[in-house]
Amino acid sequence: MTPDIKPLVAGNWKMNGVQSCLAELNAMSTGFTKELQSKIDLLICLPATLISLGTAETKQSALKIGAQDCHFNVNGAHTGDISTQMITDIGATSVLVGHSERRTDHGESDAIVLAKANAAIASGLMTVVCIGETEVERKSGDTLKVLETQLAGSLPDEYSSNIVIAYEPVWAIGTGLIPKVSDVEEAHGFIRSEMIKRYGENGKTIRLLYGGSVKPANAKELMSIENVDGALVGGASLKAADFLGICEAYL
Ligand code: PEP
Questions:
Q1: Which residue segment(s) compose the domain that 17 sits in?
Q2: Residue 80: exposed, middle, or buried by beta-carbon count in 10 A (0-12, 13-18, 19+)?
Q3: Ligand 1 within 6 A of 176 CB?
Q4: What pLDDT, in 10s, does the model give residues 41-90?
Q5: Gyration radius (Cα) of the chain, Å
Q6: Is 106 annotated as catalytic?
Q7: How many angstroms is it from 197 CA to the middle of ligand 1?
Q8: Catalytic residue among 99, 108, 137, 188
Q9: What pLDDT was estimated at residue 248?
Q10: Which of 56, 129, 179, 227 is most buried when burial is the number of CB atoms within 10 A of its CB?
């Protein structure tokens, strides 16, 4: 945790969920009590097909809805893509950019992630920029070098209060593996110092999320690490009981 930063717990449903799954979203919204609201912000990044329904479902709720990706152009001949304008138009307030699955499956470079981040920030979306090393990079001792390169290449030049960073070791995503506390502490401390180098005092206010196999059982330990200001959660964000169980780490 970082004093004076309100943590964010963000869920990423990835390519999971059909309309019937909105019952889980509803349960999350109901379980996001006033007490939890006073401690954390809550976000679920839905598949594009559910965003409109999800924003309608959570209209009266403090739970926010986000998208999982965006194009960097406002409109045009980009079959299958969605723009930040389309995302805001249907009521989402946030977007993930540079998730490792996008970087790997769609060959997204830091330059593409940067273009997307710029577009998202220009649209007023809270923009969660994802970074993280692969298993090979960690084993060869290159973690901090990789993070430094990704941060340098994927982040906007100008500070915005809408920038959020998610540190997600690729080898920890969906595997049940998590780094040692000291490794998370080192990575987040490094990211914090890079943010301060880049944005000055404002860098102290940027939320740094940890992502990779966060579950109710490990959330308390992970979320209490210095400079960990919340979580980006994949698998355990699909069920309200699990997702709220993670949030309870903050009670
Ligand atoms: C993710 O998709 O960003 C993620 C961290 O997944 P999981 O929690 O399933 O590891």
A1: 8-250
A2: exposed
A3: no
A4: 999 999 999 999 999 999 999 999 999 999 999 999 999 999 999 999 99
A5: 17
A6: no
A7: 28
A8: 99
A9: 97
A10: 129
Over the range 130-143, which residues count as b (16 or more CB within 10 Å of their CB) and which as e?
bbbbbeebbeeeeb
* Total structural domains within the chain: 1
Rounded Cα distance, 179 and 160, in Å: 29
Q: What's the average model confidence in pLDDT over 125-139?
A: 98
Instruction: Write down the pLDDT at residue 3.
Output: 84
In-domain check, residue 1 = no
99 counts as catalytic: yes
Q: Does residue 223 lie within any of the structural domains?
A: yes
Q: Is residue 2 part of a domain?
A: no
Q: For residue 180, tell me if it sits in a domain.
A: yes
CA of 10 to the centre of ligand 1 (A): 10
What was the pLDDT predicted at 1?
84
What are the backbone angles phi and psi of residue 5, rounded to the nearest 5°?
-105, 125
Output the domain CATH number for residue 122. Answer: 3.20.20.70
Judge if the beta carbon of residue 100 lies within 6 A of ligand 1: no
